[in-house]
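Tokens for chain A. Residues wanted.
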């Protein structure tokens, strides 16, 4: 069993991020965590300081207070206005879905954070060695709203005034 330090714990992980403009009011961010070899994130039997590894976290942004307090969103987007929806999917090394759901992101005061903590437990609730599980890829999709630009706000206001004027006529 390899005994590692926390800096050597995870295999070479690559993070791919792409941002797509959905409309003038929303953007979609796709984030993929994967190893450079397609193998499990943590080698089977790896221990940390002589102890089995029971938890794994996938994180992005200000998770667990690790980022600078002035960091208000992981996208550095000055128009960021809050999360609309998000979904995350965990895959094994064969591409099979291990789990999927809406549990990746949360709006928090002053910003956003995204992360999932995986804990492998027995039916009795005891934490078990997570390296016996084949977790090799995590994909998250986050859709967030934008603060309307001044031009968009003007158009919305003008449209609302026009609609109100037609109703009175």
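Reply:
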């Amino acid at each position: 069993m390899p005994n590692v330090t926390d800096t050597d714990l995870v295999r070479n992980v690559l993070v791919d991020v792409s941002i797509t403009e959905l409309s003038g009011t929303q953007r979609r961010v796709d984030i993929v965590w994967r190893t450079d070899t397609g193998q499990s994130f943590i080698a089977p039997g790896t221990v940390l300081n002589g102890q089995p590894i029971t938890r794994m976290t996938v994180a992005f942004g200000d998770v667990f207070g690790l980022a600078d307090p002035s960091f208000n969103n992981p996208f550095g987007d000055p128009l960021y206005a809050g999360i609309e929806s998000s979904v995350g999917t965990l895959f094994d090394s064969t591409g099979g879905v291990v789990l999927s759901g809406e549990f990746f992101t949360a709006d928090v005061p002053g910003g956003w954070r995204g992360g999932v903590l995986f804990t492998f437990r027995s039916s009795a609730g005891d934490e078990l060695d997570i390296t016996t599980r084949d977790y090799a890829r995590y994909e998250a999709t986050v859709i967030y709203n934008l603060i309307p630009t001044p031009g968009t706000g003007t158009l919305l206001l003008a449209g609302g005034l026009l609609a109100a004027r037609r109703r009175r006529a």
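The longest helix spans residues 150-168. The mean pLDDT is 74.
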